[in-house]
Amino acid sequence: MRTLIIGVGALGGLIGARLRATGARVWFATRDEASASRLRASGLRVSGLGGVVEVAAPDVAALDAYPAGLAFDLLVLATKAHEAMEIAPRVAGWIDAGGTLLPIQNGAVSQLLADRLGSERVLGGLSNLGATLHSPGVFEQRNAGHLLIGELAGGLSTRAERVRTWLGQGVEVRMTPNLPGAVWSKLLLNCSVTTIGAIAGCTMRAYVGTIEGRTVFDRAYDEALSVAVATGARPEQMMVQPIPPGWSGRSVPGPEHDAWLGEVLRAYGDLKPSMLQDFERGRTTEVDFINGYVVDLGRKLGLPTPVNAAIVATVHGITRGELTPDRSNLVRIAAAAS
């Protein structure tokens, strides 16, 4: 499949490098020519789980440098959510007949793009791959995660199987007939693990052992799960079971819940939050598509989401330079849970 990966950050770089290491030709699109030039010179290197690969990257150019009239079988959108929403309409014409646009952002990006561009062009996707960008072209795979793809209307399809087989040469790819449920399962963890770690400036394992960290985690997760259930979604098990033991609107403290939390920690506890990396690089975060999405839906459904709203406000405060990532932020947010 003629494949263009748009965005050569931690996730796009990891996927593209491992796919190129199989001998596949892969094209890459970056923000600007300076970034493209650096990658052409340095190539791509991945270390960590899955082994080390080093590949040349001759087919790299700035997105705006790609000429009109291109035809790709697969466009993988590996940018941040707000960038995906802006870029996708610009590159939709590059999808060959029968080709596919595969967004792998957090939140409801796939559905929003399908509504805009047509479900026949867009295949839903999300990632459980933990990756860190150390420097341009240098990536580390931090977990044994996978890409999950599926039709936004549900069910299985030939095109999803074709994409799974192709990308599966480089990284693990799975299909699901319940992609909306899988999107919510990932969103639940984004709302808790990712954003809380970012505003605390540490990993989940570092903050969840504190009273305020555990409180914020449980309440942010409970609020998001309540909204998910109210939409009619059926959260799907991915790396962990999405519904905590005994849950009925609130997490139930006890040994069973502690064991469930231990599974979350084993899967995600030591990963550096991607949103914290956004803070460090001065980039726009995806919080409006994560906790902000839960808050907006909760408002429409009449469900209170005070902890998620406080998380959104804190992330924006850090982005504006009014706050810094620190565990003390969790003390204030925990007050919203009382």
Assign the structural class, choosing from mainly alpha, mainly beta, alpha/beta, alpha+beta, or little secondary structure. alpha/beta
SSE run: EHEHEEEEHEHEEEEHEHHHHHHHH
Tally of helical segments: 13
**CATH architecture verdict of the largest domain:** 3-Layer(aba) Sandwich
Describe the structure.
The protein is an alpha/beta fold and 338 residues long. The protein folds into 2 domains: 3-177, 3-Layer(aba) Sandwich (Rossmann fold); 181-335, N-(1-d-carboxylethyl)-l-norvaline Dehydrogenase, domain 2 (Orthogonal Bundle). It is 45% helix and 16% strand. The chain has 13 helices and 12 strands. A 5-stranded parallel β-sheet has the order 5-2-1-6-7, with helices on both faces. Strands 4-3-10-9 form a 4-stranded mixed β-sheet, with helices on one face. Helix 6 (179-200) runs antiparallel to helix 8. The mean pLDDT is 93.
Task: Give a short summary of the structure.
The protein is an alpha/beta fold and 338 residues long.
Give the tags.
12 strands, N-(1-d-carboxylethyl)-l-norvaline Dehydrogenase, domain 2, Rossmann fold, 13 helices, 338 residues, alpha/beta, four-stranded mixed β-sheet, five-stranded parallel β-sheet
How are the SSEs ordered, and which strands pair?
Elements: E1 3-6, H1 10-20, E2 26-30, H2 33-42, E3 44-48, E4 53-55, E5 60-62, E6 72-77, H3 81-91, E7 95-103, H4 109-117, E8 124-127, E9 131-135, E10 138-141, E11 147-150, H5 158-167, E12 173-175, H6 179-200, H7 204-207, H8 211-230, H9 255-268, H10 274-281, H11 291-301, H12 306-319, H13 328-335
Parallel strand pairs: 1-2, 1-6, 2-5, 3-10, 6-7, 11-12
Antiparallel strand pairs: 3-4, 8-11, 9-10
